[in-house]
Design brief:
By secondary structure, the protein is an alpha/beta fold. Helices cover about 30% and strands about 15% of the residues. Helix 1 crosses helix 2 and helix 2 packs parallel to helix 3. It is globular.
Length: about 260
């Protein structure tokens, strides 16, 4: 059952602090379901403010459940929705930050963490990353992730897909290189819309007043040229939004203020 942007599931929390535990519970619930149905849980995460949030909330949520099926970390596969072509030690490396802040606390096997090779050219790094993903998703024409956790920029970008960028039209690659990111660092690899829209669930996490105007545009706009985040509409999956009151301040659509 496709759930398009016409019926987004939007949950609003009083603050980012209240949103955090709900995010942890949501991820573990998805993990439990995936492991129960298919024997594993494939997750791809984004960087930025999501790194400290997930690094705090996933271990905390797991600690609250005696032996949650979703916290069988050995069944998890972790990928990255986009990545900067920088060494892992760099503060700009999304994988490096997760290794330091999250993967030091939970035991996802190292060979289940799909990292780029930052020593390659950006084109080769993208191709190799796509190859690694295809190996982990044998039989899928396009890899189907159980859950993607996404953020948005004040310009409406998600992953490293920026407004009016040619990559929004990419149809054949699942991972694409970008050398002219409007946001530094310029060289990155990113999931493309065909890969994002193959997922079982896309979860956007958005907090802060600086995102309120663009969030209204994404969720309520009817532009002929939708912003990148508005184009994430999984064909056979769902889109969920966890947002705080500040980010929700301009919305007029119906939202759910009940806790998860």
């Amino acid at each position: 059952r496709a759930v398009g942007m016409s019926s987004p599931r939007v949950r609003v929390f009083a603050s980012a602090q209240e949103l955090g535990p709900a995010l942890g519970r949501f991820v573990l619930a998805q993990a439990g379901e995936a492991v129960g149905e298919r024997g594993r849980f494939s997750l791809a995460v984004s960087g930025g403010g999501l790194v400290p949030l997930l690094s705090a909330e996933l271990p905390a949520a797991a600690a609250h459940q005696p032996e949650p099926p979703g916290a069988a970390w050995s069944r998890w596969i972790l990928g990255f929705c986009d990545e900067r072509l920088v060494p892992f030690e760099s503060p700009d490396s999304t994988c490096g930050l997760y290794r330091k802040n999250l993967l030091s606390k939970i035991s996802i096997p190292n060979n289940h963490v799909v990292a780029i090779n930052p020593s390659l050219s950006v084109e080769e790094a993208a191709d190799k990353y796509a190859e690694k993903l295809r190996e982990l998703f044998p039989g899928d024409n396009i890899p189907v992730f159980d859950l993607l956790i996404l953020g948005i920029g004040p310009d409406g970008h998600t992953c490293s897909l920026f407004p009016d960028h040619p990559l929004l039209q990419e149809q054949s690659k699942i991972i694409a290189p970008i050398s002219d990111s409007p946001k530094p660092p310029p060289k990155r690899i990113t999931m493309t819309l065909p890969l994002l829209n193959a997922a079982r669930c896309a979860l956007f996490v958005v907090t802060g007043e600086s995102k309120a105007a663009v969030l209204k545009d994404i969720l309520e706009g009817h532009s002929e040229n939708p912003l990148p985040a508005a184009r994430v509409q999984p064909v056979k999956g769902e889109v969920h939004w966890l947002i705080d009151e500040a980010a929700a301040s301009k919305l007029t659509i119906k939202v759910d203020r009940a806790s998860l």
